[in-house]
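Lecture 7 notes: from sequence to structure.

We start with a single chain of 164 residues. Read the sequence below before looking at the structure.
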Amino acid sequence: MNPAEALHPAETLRDRFLRAVAGTAALLMIVGCGGGDDASDADAGMTEEEATPARVMITEPADGAEVDAGPLLVVMEVDGLEIVQAGNMEPGTGHHHLVVNGDVDWALPIPNDPGVHYHMGLAQTEFTLEDLPPGEHRIIAVVADGVHIPLDPPVADTITVVVR
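Now the structure, written as tokens:
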């Protein structure tokens, strides 16, 4: 212990605290102001999957498409994660579900409800919907984890099609 600490322990602790706060504030100002190139310094050290949020897109049919009655092929693509078989709980993975004219409970496993909820547990990226009646239909693609719970944050896409 040096003599200053022995004579003024409370002041020394206060001084140390203030120096630490000042140093932290200066660091936050430097980081917050950026100063990097066009890439975010906040993303430094992150993998591409961590820096870019995962997303799913229904690529076929197009949103708003008018389609003939009969089987309807739905094709999905993902960015930022890997589509794997159900049961796999590795981070950065999931599998597809389709919800037709129904809703998603984002906190519960997606049920296997024929005609509404369709499960693609073998890592499929496309699914054929049979026998959609004429009219407007909302189709939601949802990526869920190995036990069918939608990913958080949600990875979903919604389209509407009209069957003639």
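Confidence is low (pLDDT under 50) at residues 1-11, 13-43. Keep this in mind for problem set 3.
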